[in-house]
Amino acid sequence: MIDHLSLSDRSKYACALRASALVENGMKVGLGTGSTAYWLVYHLAERVRSEGLEFVGVPTSKKTREQAQAEGLKLISMDDAGRLDITIDGADEFDQSMNLIKGGGGAHLQEKIVAFGSDRMVVIADETKKVNKLGKFPLPVEVLKFGSASSQKQIEELLIAQNYRDFTVQMRMEKNKPFISDEGNYIFDLNLGEIQNPRKLCVDLNIIPGVVENGLFIDVCKAVVIGYSDGTAKISWKDNVV
Fold it and tell me: Which residues are known catalytic residues?
C-alpha cells in the first residue's frame, strides 16, 4: 500500500505504524487528531482485526471519533476513562526538548487535556516538523466568543511586553467565516516567527481572561516517532527513558 502514497504520506504512514506497536492489550489510549493521527487509527484498527488487539480509545476531536467509529474501535469519554496509559498524536512543530506546537487542526484544547491526562504522550511526525526553535508555525490560541476582540487586544499587548515585534494575531477563518472549534470557540493564530521563551509565553497567554488554551505543549511529550519517506521510522525517548 505504501508504494501508492505520496512521499509525505509515506512518512506519516511509517511513524504511525511504528507508534501503533506501543499499544498493548487492555490499554486506555488517547487518539490524536490530524493527517498523521489518521494513520494511527488506521493501523490500530488493522491490529484489532488481524491480532485481536483489545483496547479502548479516547478521541481528541469529532473527526477522530468519526473515523474510529467507522473502523469499529471501542471508544470511551475522557471522564469515564480516568488516567490514560498512552496518548499518540501528531505535532505541527517539535524542538530538541520535545516541546510542541499543536492545534493546526483546531483541536489543541482536547488534545492537551488528553495528553496531560496520560502516563505517556508520544508524538508522531515526519522530519520536517523538527525545529531548533518553535514559532515558525503559527501558534493557535483558543478564545471564548464573548469578548474575543478584547482578548485579541490583550494578546497583542502581551506580545509587545515580551518584546515580540514583527507579529500578527489573526482570527482563523474557514469558508469566509470564523473557524469554530469543537468546543464552540474562536481560534487566533499568532505568527511570531520564533518563540523566545515557550514556557513563559504558554503560562502568560492562559492568564488572559477569555483565553481557553494555547497550542504550546511543554514538558508533556515523552517520545517522538519520526517517519521517513522510505517507509522507515525512528523513535527517540526523552532523557532515554522508555
Answer: 111
